[in-house]
Specification:
Order of helices and strands: EEEEEEEHEHEEEEEE
Mean pLDDT: 84
Radius of gyration: 18 Å
Helix content: under 10%
Largest sheet: 7 strands, mixed
Structural class: mainly beta
Low-confidence stretches: 1-23
Distance between the termini: 28 Å
Number of helices: 2
Number of strands: 14
Strand content: 35-45%
Shape: elongated
CATH superfamily of the largest domain: RimM
CATH class of the largest domain: Mainly Beta
CATH architecture of the largest domain: Beta Barrel
């Protein structure tokens, strides 16, 4: 099974229907703030880094537009997420206002992806082609509902996007510099 870098893909323990999209080439989403935890400003945090605890090692985290910055003061593991206190967030009301904010870092802070591993942000927007080179659509998202990564392909023919397992059998070739992903479509049975 292909082991993609997990910088922008929710971990299997994150809330259902988490969807990865690529906001920009110079910022990468590495976490999402959840609901408040208690009354003293703590909140849930879902990390999207390969090692979930690494979310605290990148320094200040920013909103997608870069206008707000957050420093993690404390962090402890919970069942399927972390409980964090962010600098300047002192009560439940302040924590509630931050619910569902995605947190980003500058792309330059990430190491190059290892051979056979990919940052999900690099996959979004690739042309999806059959092994024969026929264009079938565009990679629109990477998803994880807890059972493994899925690639979402917006079809050139329109209609609902296709969801396919992100495995070596289904996606045998990825050419980031060429802007394409080879996809083996499942056989249709009637």
């Amino acid at each position: 099974m292909r082991k993609p870098r997990r910088d922008v893909s929710p971990s299997p323990a994150s809330p259902p229907a988490a969807k990865t999209s690529a906001p920009s080439a110079d910022r990468i989403c590495i976490a999402r703030i959840g609901a408040p935890h208690g009354v003293r400003g703590e909140m849930k945090l879902w990390s999207f880094t390969q090692d979930p605890a690494d979310v605290a090692t990148y320094g200040p985290l920013h909103t997608e537009d870069g206008k707000r910055q957050f420093d993690i003061e404390t962090m402890r593991a919970a069942k399927d997420h972390f409980v964090v206190r962010l600098k300047g967030v002192a009560d439940r009301d302040a924590a509630e206002k931050l619910r569902n904010i995605e947190l980003f870092i500058d792309r330059a802070l990430l190491p190059p992806a290892e051979d056979g591993a990919y940052y999900h942000a690099d996959l979004i927007g690739l042309s999806a082609v059959t092994p024969d080179g026929v264009a079938i659509g565009t990679v629109s998202a990477m998803l994880n509902f807890g059972a493994g990564d899925l690639v979402e392909i917006k079809s050139n023919a329109g209609g609902e996007p296709m969801l396919l397992p992100f495995t070596a059998a289904t996606v045998p070739e990825i050419d980031i510099s060429g802007g394409k992903m080879v996809v083996v479509l499942p056989a249709v049975t009637e």
